[in-house]
Backbone:
């Protein structure tokens, strides 16, 4: 028998040595995934001196070895919490980022203010369906369209939309530049998290480089190639007065505002996250 506390400490130490910043949290989450306990329950059971049987310890060790090699925790557990939903994730799709939850919030706020019984939104480059599902679940009167170019990513979106979409989220596999042309001029809110890392900038974390698809990360020489495409399409999709919310990288605020202005948007505003990094543009058609 090994106690929960001993396992958590041992895992946290291994993860720390492997260079994982969130070592203790990941240790508790791996133990929680195998035992079916929440992170809080793991901490409580560690405090109470609860023991684990050998089979459970072996299973935890197998997953811990994967995490030690810097496989993303979300690939190991197969899921990623995003606002009020828990998304299925895995190879071929970007793991949704916590900072994108803030982008979702700005889009949700805009969608809630639409004076229509059935406000309509489009999520360009939906990946797991994270933004589309945040909008649909938090604005229950809304109708949401999710467009994704990668068929592999779209399979993850389809799975998540089947679970949470409530019949109000339509997924289309296609190019954000041209898919669903019949929606042009009818949409209240367009939200997007395009690939925006310049091709020459290699992300530092193994979890990103080794596992997130390159087509979800890199946006050409200046990082703005897909932002230009998505903003141009948003200008066509939105009705006059509709709102655009686009995530972008720190330091891209001025360039993205200029792109939106030349595409015909007004009230272009750059928003920062809690660490004061430029994070997203909002603009009005
Ligand atoms: C940074 S990821 C964002 C995924 C998801 N929206 C999120 O926030 O977690 C960008 C997504 O856009 C997709 N994508 C890139 N170019 C596209 C295009 N031209 N049309 C549609 N989707 C595209 C990628 O395959 C990827 O899934």
Residues:
């Amino acid at each position: 028998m090994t106690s929960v506390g001993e396992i958590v400490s041992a895992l946290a130490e291994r993860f720390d040595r492997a260079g994982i910043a969130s070592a203790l949290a990941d240790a508790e989450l791996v133990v929680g995934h195998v035992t079916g306990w929440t992170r809080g329950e793991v901490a409580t059971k560690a405090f109470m001196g609860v023991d684990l049987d050998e089979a459970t310890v072996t299973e935890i060790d197998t997953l811990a070895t994967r995490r030690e090699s810097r496989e993303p925790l979300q690939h190991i557990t197969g899921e990623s919490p995003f606002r009020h939903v828990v998304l299925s994730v895995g190879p071929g799709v970007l793991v949704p980022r916590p900072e994108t939850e803030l982008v979702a919030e700005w889009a949700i706020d805009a969608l809630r203010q639409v004076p229509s019984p059935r406000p309509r939104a489009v999520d360009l480059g939906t990946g797991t369906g994270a933004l589309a599902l945040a909008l649909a679940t938090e604005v229950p009167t809304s109708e949401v369209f999710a467009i994704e170019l990668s068929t592999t990513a779209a399979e993850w979106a389809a799975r998540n939309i089947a679970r949470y979409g409530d019949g109000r989220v339509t997924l289309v596999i296609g190019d954000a530049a041209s898919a669903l042309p019949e929606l042009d001029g009818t949409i209240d809110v367009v939200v997007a998290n395009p690939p925006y890392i310049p091709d020459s900038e290699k992300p530092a974390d193994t979890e990103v480089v080794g596992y997130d698809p390159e087509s979800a990360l890199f946006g050409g020489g200046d990082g703005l190639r897909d932002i230009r495409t998505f903003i141009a399409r948003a200008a066509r999709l939105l009705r006059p007065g509709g709102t655009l919310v686009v995530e972008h990288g720190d330091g891209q605020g001025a360039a993205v505002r200029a792109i939106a202005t030349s595409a015909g948007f007004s009230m272009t505003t750059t928003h920062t996250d809690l660490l004061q990094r430029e994070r997203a543009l909002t603009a009005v058609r």
